[in-house]
């Protein structure tokens, strides 16, 4: 392979926000370059679907530094730096603003990189999560779900799923794999961007190892948070109630595309991961020798999961609970469930080419349901019928 996976263009369509395509500007911009700073009316800003759970949501972003590791792709970086975000249930959101889908400078980079004629902050939606709101301790210790995004993708890419889980009482942690992600904004204003080290198939083993090490380092920092310590490199104030709120005996992990590969690699190396969900992810290396914990794979027809490295080798060697479904009518990109930053020029045919023929709101509903049901089953031991051979509620999901 010339690339680890066929690299998705960064203006890829994130399904959930396509619900509001009609709300986006439809005028073709033919103005001068000075118009690049113009902003569409606030009413045209896309929004994310509201989570369905009973709890309001808080969020915080943390800057983590691992002094034991160097960044493999940038000379002169003495330590590996990450940004993570956490979503969790809150009982007291008042006075805490809603967090943006991307911070301002990262959003501006995204807009510039795609040649969009607006400033980034007017193109990205607000989330439903309140920055810095206290953790709702009435729910007891929260099961934890960690997320790894796909290659070139940012930690926000499945916010719809993060918010859904948090609204049902999970703590969700999403990781930016710095320099693999398209853009990562740090608290000092730096925006670190993707470089091609991460897309070169010759570096595949090191890419997977670095991503997995990122995830395991984050797990260590979650233990520090739960113990009442503050691992944030800048000493950011933590939400009230966070210490002691995480149930580190109930940790699941999921990811899309290369994030799915990161999920299985991390679980192979770290028994703290108790359940794995891969959204159309490949598997590499020794992972194909098998895993002994619950594993759910949701794949697509375009391309077939069988085309991905390791798919055939892994399945016969899974020793725990395992299921595999294909979501009909959806492309690989369509499983990135979050809000697209749409240009005014995108057409229905382009949308179909990016995510498939299944309606975006239906994709979001199905992936919300299956993600929640899987972690409820494996981390909370709550029964479900969604993993029957023929799921009646969601006929688009075909057991494979």
Characteristic key phrases:
single chain; 400 residues; alpha/beta; Rossmann fold; 11-stranded mixed beta sheet; two-stranded antiparallel sheet; 7 helices
CATH architecture: 3-Layer(aba) Sandwich
CATH homologous superfamily grouping:
Alpha/Beta hydrolase fold, catalytic domain
> How many alpha or pi helices?
7
* Oligomer category: single chain
- Which stretches are poorly predicted, pLDDT < 50 over at least 5 residues? 1-43, 339-345
Strand order of the largest sheet: 3-4-1-2-6-5-9-10-11-12-13
Total beta strands: 13
Level of helix content? 10-25%
CATH fold name: Rossmann fold
What coarse outline follows from CA principal-axis ratios?
Answer: globular
What's the CATH class, please?
Alpha Beta
Q: Give the ordered list of helices and strands.
A: EEEHEEHEEEHEHEEHEHHE
